[in-house]
Amino acid sequence: MALTDMDYISKEDLFSVLESMKIALPRTSKMSTEALSKRLKDGLNASQRSEELIDGDFLDPRQFRPWVDLRGLMRQTMVMQQSIMGNFNRHMTQGLPRGPEQTLEELQDVVLYFGHQCNAGVQNLILSDKDVDDWAIAIRIFGAYTVDEDTPVFMLSYRIVHSIPNKTLPSVSELGRRSFLRLLNMNSKKLTHQYEPDGDNNRKYAKKKWKVSFILPLGPVPMEEVGKLTTDPGCDVCGSTKNVSRCSNCLTVVYCSPECQRKAWPSHQDACRSLPGGTWTEINLGENPSTPMGGLPNGMFVTRLNMHESWQGRRRTPEVFRAGGESGREPDIPKDIHGNKAFLLKFQVGLGGGRPNHMMMYDQAAELHGLLEEDRGSRGV
Ligand SMILES: [Zn+2]
Ligand SMILES: [Zn+2]
User: 263 alpha carbon to ligand 1 midpoint, in Å?
Assistant: First the structure.
């Protein structure tokens, strides 16, 4: 079977892999497989920080120095990915299975495994499933190189094999292998055509059925990207993301055309009619004079950082918004990215303790967040 067929991922699995990257789209979304695949591609690129690490359109490893500290390679890969050694041991070496919603973790472990094997001087690897043996990915690692002082890149070639020599570790699920293959195929197109691996032995693995590619550590997808990739799940009927507009009555669903809206009406009407029957409250968003930044106490600050993301190893400092402070400096107000467009806010009741009657609120990309507090003044909330 051709290399490209094996990276097929069903629609349901695409939702799961995206979820593993915190890109949670409603499973009822009618988005096409192609549109979901595009989000997966964008998600993977954000996870490996392609835009930041690849100069221009193509990665050119000829400008990189070899990664010398091989013992530090695995540790550094782990730091870049925020992955935990215990996970690697439990899932990869002891074979504890993972669910489809843990695919990103599984891919991170594969990259960690590359570091592990590089360190041990092993160049040929097989990624197979210990329970299903009809296909596996054979990998030849050419070496690890230094993209920037703390980011390694693994140069390699790969091919599909159907007879697996021996039941080697590690065990990578079918979906994990398909997703990994997709990443390899994607990166292969980003590699400069001038690249050739060093040494005759390696060059044998760059010919015929072997395809040359690279792998960068896979970090958490930054919050900003998560926000972009979870918006616009498309027309509720056909999945098209072009020319969509919201149902003017409830604002909870979007349609691409009056035809699609008519088609949806029989099933949508109950939900649509129940919303205007609810209690609607108008609130004003703005600065709270007593506690700047919509209610955060003085001195606290908020960032647009995925909770699974770390600052370590990131060249780009996440944008930090500070509330005012003792110094009397003005609080930073994040820019208004929504304008007059409708958007969803999530309200979360405080987890006991702290201040009563307040709710945490934030939008999908965490571009807007703060506390909503009961107005004890005359107007009520
Ligand atoms: Zn439609
Ligand atoms: Zn409606």
Answer: 9
Contact 215, 184 (CB under 8 A): yes
Ligand located closest to 30 CA: 1
Q: Which residues contact 225 (CB under 8 A, 6 or more apart)?
A: 42, 43, 46
Q: What is the pTM of this model?
A: 0.77
Q: Give residue-wise pLDDT tens across range 206-251.
A: 888 999 999 999 999 987 788 888 877 788 888 888 888 888 888 7
Ligand nearest to the CA of 262: 1
pLDDT tens digits along 40-95: 999 999 999 998 888 888 999 998 999 988 888 998 898 888 888 888 888 887 87
Give the residue among 135, 138, 118 at the shortest CA–CA distance from 126. 138
- Cα–Cα distance, 360 to 346 (Å, whole number): 8
DSSP run (H or E) holding 71: helix 70-81
Residue with tokens 């703390």, as numbered in its chain: 150
The alpha carbon of 236 and the centre of ligand 1 are apart by a number of angstroms equal to: 7
CA–centroid distance, 285 to ligand 2, in Å, is: 25
Alpha-carbon Rg for the chain in angstroms:
24
Please give the distance, rounded to the nearest whole angstrom, from the Cα atom of residue 242 to the centre of ligand 1.
9
Distance set, CA 218 to CA 50, 72, 183, 293, 348 (Å): 10, 17, 11, 33, 30
Domain boundaries, the chain: 5-226, 236-274, 281-381
Q: Whose atoms come closest to the Cα of 32: which ligand?
A: 1
Tokens of 162: 């159907």
Span from the CA of 311 to the centroid of ligand 2 (angstroms): 41
Which ligand ends up closest to the CA of 248? Answer: 2
- Distance (Å, rounded) from C-alpha 127 to C-alpha 81? 20
